[in-house]
Design brief:
By secondary structure, this protein is of the alpha/beta class. It is built from 13 helices and eleven strands. The strands form two sheets. It has a seven-stranded mixed sheet, sandwiched between helices. Strands 8-9-11-10 form a four-stranded antiparallel sheet. Helix 8 links the parallel strand 5 and strand 6. Helix 1 crosses helix 10, helix 2 packs parallel to helix 10 and helix 12 crosses helix 13. The chain starts with 28 loop residues before the first helix and ends with a helix. 48% of the residues are buried.
């Protein structure tokens, strides 16, 4: 059968590659095939479809019998909905200063979610019980937003990982203070691949109450999910998702993407590959005199420091972002579709620009 005709035109050069973000990558072909499979015919809207129902079975296979998934459009939406579900109107969320909810979500948790973020500086993007205690106080002080949630990110915004034991300590500490634990898992697949454990090992098995489950950065076209792990910790998730403008009418097309990733091992294959490309990149960078790797490379991110003029010239050849432009710090991200040739070509360009410098 011939493919359907379309008046759409390609407006980009698919040969252009970069290391700016795993969001720059397209969708995995298996995910696109799943979307096409779900097309055709009529399915009940707003999540009452067969694909969303089947997604619940898959989610429970990863996160336990009480887990429930609420598909949403994007990561910021997932975080805002999840944090609203575990806070009161007067509540606050303790997080790392570098957390995505604090730095990269345009104030959405506070402006749209109506909650207060209490941030803590961290050297590696990771909270600890001692760091949490810098903000975990004043529950009876009406002049201070009440700490009710600890939010951690796995893998962190600096590309580092929590071990399962570290997350267990955080959960035990938070719960002892009457607080709940949210995990931002936009790159949870990369964490599981690097730790070589199931996702449940560092989520529901160690006490995490609610999870933002990422799909887009791991090969989905769009779509994430809020996964409730502790049903006693949340209230009115369905209503919160709707009023937060995260309820998809044609939800089957979000759910089937997550099904394609999670039903078997596509999520893990994609994550292992992007992690492997980051390791290849880091190994090459370590041989370049004058370039410093800033953090352990534990997932699919490489953070480095190099001369500012070198970065500016290199950016004209490959897209990537400054992390701290004043310090000369940059971030290089690898994706499920990053190739060895991409990495080797970038390393060659880096060496050329450093030699010129």
């Amino acid at each position: 059968m011939n493919p359907p005709k379309t008046d759409a035109r390609r407006h980009h050069d698919p040969a252009v590659r970069g290391f700016a973000s795993d969001n720059y990558a397209g969708a995995h072909p298996e995910v696109l095939a799943a979307v096409a499979l779900a097309n055709g015919g009529h399915q009940v809207a707003y999540g009452e479809d067969d694909y969303t129902a089947n997604l619940q079975r898959i989610i429970r296979s990863h996160f336990g019998a009480t887990a429930e998934a609420f598909p949403v459009f994007n990561g910021t939406g997932a975080n805002v909905v999840a944090l609203q579900a575990v806070t009161d109107r007067w509540g606050a969320v303790i997080c790392a200063e570098s957390a995505h909810i604090n730095v990269d979500e345009g104030g959405a948790p506070e402006r749209m979610g109506g909650l207060k973020l209490l941030t803590v500086p961290t050297p590696d993007g990771k909270l600890t019980p001692d760091l949490i205690d810098r903000q975990a106080y004043g529950w009876d002080d009406e002049h201070r937003a009440m700490p009710q949630v600890v939010s951690i990110t796995q893998s962190t915004e600096l590309g580092t990982l929590y071990t399962p034991d570290e997350i267990r300590e955080i959960c035990d500490h938070a719960h002892a203070h009457g607080m709940k634990v949210h995990l931002d898992g936009s790159r949870i697949a990369n964490a599981a691949a690097s730790l070589d454990v199931p996702m449940r090992t560092f989520t529901n098995a160690v006490g995490v109450d609610i999870l933002s489950l990422g799909g887009t950065k791991n090969g989905a076209l769009y779509g994430e999910a809020v996964v409730v792990l502790n049903q006693d910790a949340v209230r009115q998730m369905k209503h919160l998702r709707k009023l937060s403008m995260q309820l998809a009418s044609k939800m089957r097309f979000v759910s089937v993407q997550l099904e394609a990733l999670l039903a078997k091992d596509l999520w893990l294959r994609n994550a292992r590959h992007s992690n492997g490309m980051a390791q290849r990149l880091a190994e090459g960078v370590r041989s370049v005199h004058g370039v410093e790797i800033l953090h352990p490379v534990q997932a699919n991110a490489v953070f480095a420091r190099l001369p500012h003029d070198v970065s500016e010239r290199l950016q004209k050849r490959y897209r990537f972002y400054f992390w701290d432009e004043a310090a000369g710090d940059v971030r290089w991200m690898c994706s499920f579709d990053t190739t060895e040739d991409d990495v080797d070509g970038f390393l060659a360009a880096l060496k050329e620009e450093m030699a010129h410098h």
